[in-house]
Amino acid sequence: MTLANRYPDDPRPVVGVGRLRWTVRLTPTPLSVTYTVRIEYAYGQQPTVTVLDPPLRAAPDTTVHHVFERDELCLYYDEFNWRRDLLADSILPWISEWLYHHEYSQGDGTWHGGGLHPGELDSDAPRAVRRRAGRRQLNRAAPSTAGLPSSSGRRI
Amino acid sequence: MTMTLPTTRDEQLSQLLGCTVEQLDISAEDFLAAEQRYLDLAKHLAEYGADIYVQGSVMLGTVVSPYGRIGEFDLDLVCRLNLAKTSITQQGLKERVGGYLTDYIDATDGVDDEIPELSESRRAWALNYRRFHMDVLPAIPNLNSGSPTAILLTDKLLREWQDSDPKAYVAWFRRQCALQFELAREALAKAAAGTVDDVPLWRVRTPLHRVVQILKRHRDIFFATDGENRTPSSLITTLAALSYHGERDLLHATMSVVQRMPLHIEKRNGKFWVPNPVADENFADKWNDYPQRRVRFLEWAAQVERDLEAAATETSGVQAVRERLEKAFGPDPVRRAFGSIADQTRNIRERGELKVTSTGLLTTGAGIPARPHRFFGGPTN
Q1: For residue A24, what are the domain limits?
Q2: What is the pTM of this model?
Q3: What is the per-residue pLDDT across A14-66, written as a single tens digit (0 to 9) for each?
Q4: Which residue of chain B comes nearest to A28, CA vs CA?
Q5: Contacts of A135 in chain B (CB under 8 A)
Q6: CATH match for B28-164 among 3.30.460.90, 3.40.50.1220, 3.50.50.60, 3.40.50.2000
Q7: What is the ipTM of this complex?
Q8: Candidates B315, B339, B361; nearest CB to A29
Q9: Are B228 and B292 in contact (CB under 8 A)?
């Protein structure tokens, strides 16, 4: 399995019929904390990536950029093709890059990683992309002071 | 110059420190704008036999925008008249230069439609533009010194002429980082595809230059509500230059310098002395009149060390490091630094040079390439 070969220090992915669930630990910079990230992939569908730990939060008066609901990361537009691409080669580096820009945007809330927001989609984008893009993309605001989201409440 | 991605904690922190003071440094465009303004003044005052030149931190390459006035710069200009000490008093010299400046403001068309305003300053006179504030220091030659560039300045209280030699001081400062100065100069020449002689000397930045900028900015924040006891830049610059031993890593350089600085404070006949290395002047003179200022200096130096140590050993991640840096250096330049570094990291990916290792570390070394993509949309690069 390519993923396990590439990332030997992480637990081996859990593989089912046409499905894969994998947890990986990523540290984007020497000063960063280590993030525990879950990837779920069903054959023929788009992979979903969520950060299990630590909880994604925004600095006060800023937002978390480029996340779907339930803190699923928005990593690409139409650049991942399940027929052509391996997760290890494509998605994994983008996850680290996302984490990096998340960390580096916390000062003034500005995302420097590039990308697009909803409303800027091409009308001739592939149908799968438009369907996926139809999901509400959030720029999630900082949580209220009532309490921080706990990682145990995350979907598995 | 292209940024590289750090592989160690110290490298990353050094990069953040350097980029933070870069936000406060004078750009080539700003220097040109300042130069146009003082050259306009120089042209007019040449008629009176006055020689105008820039000295101080802009010439040294250690300038930082004042706290709360990002994008503005304070410049020191020497206005040297070829007069004998016996022929004029300090008051007389000051008034004469004031007259010349008044005439200048009346006569000039200004630069970029900007005509400065004249005001009295700490030492003598200031010309105030929107973003540049030029202290004009009246001076005459010091013929008793061995140095051809030695001058006598008007003292603030006009008691005695003050010995100075700004041009010699700049030369001395560059000697304290001579090797790094040449390396930095060559690197600038290479980047501009020119020769070393094409590089204006004020543009060269060695780790010592950056250390002085870091220390001055930290000082600005630390003494923000204690202006009276604020350690003067001349003291910081001189002590730092004496304490620099060629370190290249900024974090290490700043820590080492701040630890060694107190060792260079002399005591002569019961008085504290930090001699000007090129003129007969005691930069620590005020410490003998106001002992609490020396105490505050030592407290400040200890705080620099504590702040850097805390940032270097922070285990709660990048946000926590950023918060510590914002507290020590002010949020504005720190946030711009993070943004600037993140932009350059995006550029690295857009050039196809970004890789990621098996632990998720972003690198320009060995790893899995990050392919072109857009975080949810945008033209593929």
Answers
A1: 2-143
A2: 0.89
A3: 777 778 889 999 999 999 999 999 999 887 788 889 999 998 887 677 777 77
A4: B361
A5: none
A6: 3.30.460.90
A7: 0.89
A8: B361
A9: no
